[in-house]
Amino acid sequence: MRLWVFILAIGFFCAPIWAQKDYLAENYFEQGDYEKALTLYQRLVEEQPRQPKFVLGLVNTYQQLSMFAPAENLLKARLREPRIYPLYYIALANNFNIQRQADSAQVYIDKALAYAIEQPNYTISIGKALTDLSLLEPAKTLYQGAMQQHPDKDYNLQLARVYGELGDLEAMFETYLTLMESTPRFIPSIQRYLETYITEDPQNQGNMLLKTALLKRLAERPEPLYNSLLSWLFAQQKEYGKAFIQEKAIFMRSGGDLEGVKQLGYAALNDQEHTTAKTIFDYVLTQALDPRERLSAHIEILRLDRELNQRPDVEIDQDYTRLMQEFNAFDQTQLTLDYADFLAFHQEQSQKAISLLNQAAEQARQSYAEGRLRLLLGDILVFNGLYNDALVNYALVQSVLKDDDLAQEAKFKEAQTSYFRGDFQWAQTQLKVLKSSTTQKMANDAIALHVLINENTLEDSTQTALKKFASAQLLMHQKKYTQAIAALKDLQSGEQTDRLADDVLHNLGQLYLLIQEPHLAREQWEILISDHPDCVYVDDALFALAELMMSDFNSPQEAKTYLESIIFNHADSIYFIAAQKQYRILRGDQIN
Fold it and tell me: Where are the domains of the chain?
């Protein structure tokens, strides 16, 4: 008993020393200082000869120093012991492979495979050791043999990844499908892994092989899983109509769950596939039994009707009015917001929208609903020049929601409204708080406006030019685009506008685009890039020009030139990732 206590005490006190040596040895190894690593690993193995981590660390160090004989002798000595650690077989095989002694390596690979058959608990660790060394064929043999010998074990997840690394996509897909069918909890993680092999191109090899495998299984056994995966595949390919067919099949079999159909509708909407999205939400409306689900479908359909401009506004107005009455027992926050937006910005009935939002905000049962309603109310009030009332509503949003992101947005709108009015000092006070906003976009917007005000008040105490620019931006905010352009052109021709020159050009570019004048928009952004190469809007202009070249000028080569400029000269741009992706598409690369 005393002996065991003594041994445990020694182990307790020595463990921190071993850990420190191990850390130093690893550090030396990673830095390429193999001589120092060797000394430490030799001491560790002397002190703890049966610790696999230290033995393998010493073997790896021997190999880096081309000391293959000592590595071989050490591993063989450990394998002669009564209790074998099977990864030593793989390490010894690797030692022979490094020396191009394939036959000798195979001997120990076979021994490792045989050990795994006898001791299945080591199958995954041996398989990982093989794949880490790119010994993929032996790893495949290992997992296949283990499942044959032990039918209760499932190594399909590991086997599928080996197939993928071998480039045998057909076998990989089949194995993953088998696994998803037997273990549904793996479906989300497997789908994420499959994205590596799937692109937007339906003719991509991975897409075609997966589609073939799914259709074959669906013909043999019509399981909803295969419809779901086909829908997912078609959605990856942006073929939302085909995906919709699969989702309808799932719905018919599932007994009334429309969630997959709705999510597909939102995905199509997000990709600007408005016609297909409308078809999908029309279907949801005809099939939904839950009134809340029907209301959500109505809301999306009316938004799409407005976007597609296929119905008279008077009919859309009537539909909104009918829905407000039909669903008055349910939460109507989103419906009210959409209807008020329609009235104010499409029907020029701002007073009706203001009354609607005021009443809804007073009756709101939840603070968040009230905040959303008052935020839009403030926007409509600014749109109509009722600045004081707008500021009151923005302040109320901050009061009811405190630290919420919506309160941050309201604070920015309050600062922006003060800026529009020419009250730059109060705007700056608000913006200083927002520069540390929790949302990156809000912080960026606050910083941009803060810098604009600061730069244009240092040298111009009267702030004349800035006031004119703020007034022009207000007109732009109020969607009075022609008047905003006239105001900016007038400012451009005046004096004391040097500091605002790039801001004026950037805003003119945006305005010309909004009034469908792409040639004039292009001209503004090209002047901005040429005359103000160091300004903060250069990457905005480059990306906007790239999009213009593709959408309006059918000039992909020029688009590539602008995208290249972002990639090589503006690595910190918020457009950097999007520019890379678009550039690769224009170059003809396959995009996952």
Answer: 403-447
